[in-house]
């Protein structure tokens, strides 16, 4: 028997017009009940039909969305195929209105295929939507995205940005794990992924503990919540999250932002390059590079650069956009030679 996840902590008396810094900069997840219950889309969510009609008001019809479609037998799981030579779904480019009307057609069909339109930029595809349904996160300038579809199961994965995920239509179950559960979640390939991020290979609906025995330990650290229309959850940077859409029509609006300058590259690029250049060195040489990274990257201090005149520190000096642009150009020259 797997341990049951603990409930995600819940914030109280949160004013959606002025979200406190303690929430937006949180390093632990928090559920915010009713945060966006005032949105017109949430009010329309009393009926899936009404919610679909509401969303279609903002469709300019100018470009298609990407719909992920999986057979009914997959149970909504967006994943690999059986032998990991590909995936268990196909992607289709369709007009937004067609995706919505297809979901409407399947509302009462218990054997419907899984249809999932993921991470669609609101300002691009639904202009005017945020004038009626939005949160003011100033001074942050988050990327606002919309996700909609029918019943779905999105494998546990990490995202680099902070993520404020707001349920607008339907119900969602979210299961979270701290970043240190990496080894216990049995993460799959990091370069061939269902949707850009490496995912847990464990089927949360039917965990195979013979194949994935450490998953039981991961569940001892899990936190979970079921979210209704109007509820939101703050998922801190790099927390693993497994997302389930529980209704025949579900809509999620999320806000992503990084607590770092926009000019900083993603650390995933560093990981990929380190795999290529360091992982397969002899153990003694790997240990040397581990110390080098500790000294320059993970624990920089007085011994790192204080003995060098400030004007001569180069990349050991604090970065700014211009210095990063110059370094990126030099790295590209080295890589491409």
TrEMBL record:
PROSITE patterns: JMJC (PS51184). InterPro entries: Cupin_8, JmjC_dom. Residues 115-272 form the JmjC domain. This is Cupin-like domain-containing protein. It comes from Luteimonas rhizosphaericola.
């Amino acid at each position: 028997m797997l341990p049951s996840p603990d409930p995600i902590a819940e914030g109280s008396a949160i004013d959606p017009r002025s979200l406190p810094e303690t929430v937006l900069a949180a390093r632990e997840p928090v559920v915010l009940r009713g945060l966006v219950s005032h949105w017109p889309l949430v009010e329309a969510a009393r009926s899936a039909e009404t919610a679909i009609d509401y969303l279609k008001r903002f469709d300019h019809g100018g470009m298609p969305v990407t719909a992920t479609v999986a057979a009914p037998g997959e149970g909504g799981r967006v994943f690999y195929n059986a032998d990991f030579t590909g995936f268990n779904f196909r992607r289709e480019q369709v007009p937004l209105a067609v995706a919505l009307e297809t979901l409407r057609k399947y509302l009462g069909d218990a054997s419907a295929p899984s249809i999932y339109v993921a991470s669609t930029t609101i300002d691009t595809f639904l202009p005017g939507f945020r004038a009626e349904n939005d949160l003011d996160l100033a001074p942050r300038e988050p990327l606002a995205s919309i996700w909609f579809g029918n019943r779905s199961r999105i494998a546990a994965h990490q995202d680099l940005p902070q993520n404020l995920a707001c349920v607008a239509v339907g119900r969602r179950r979210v299961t979270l794990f701290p970043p240190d559960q990496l080894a216990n979640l049995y993460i799959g390939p990091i370069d061939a992924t269902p949707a850009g991020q490496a995912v847990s290979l464990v089927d949360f609906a039917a965990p195979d503990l013979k194949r994935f025995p450490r998953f039981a330990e991961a569940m001892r650290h899990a936190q979970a919540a079921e979210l209704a229309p109007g509820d939101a959850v703050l998922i801190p940077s790099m927390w693993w999250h497994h997302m389930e859409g529980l209704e025949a029509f579900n809509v999620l609006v999320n806000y992503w932002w990084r607590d770092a300058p926009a000019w900083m590259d993603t650390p995933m690029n560093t990981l990929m390059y380190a795999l290529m250049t360091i992982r397969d060195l002899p153990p003694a040489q790997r240990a040397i590079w581990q110390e080098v990274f500790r000294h320059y990257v993970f624990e920089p201090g007085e011994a790192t650069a204080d003995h060098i005149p400030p004007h001569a520190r180069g990349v050991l000096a604090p970065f700014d956009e211009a210095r990063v642009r110059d370094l990126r150009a030099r790295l590209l020259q080295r890589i491409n030679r």
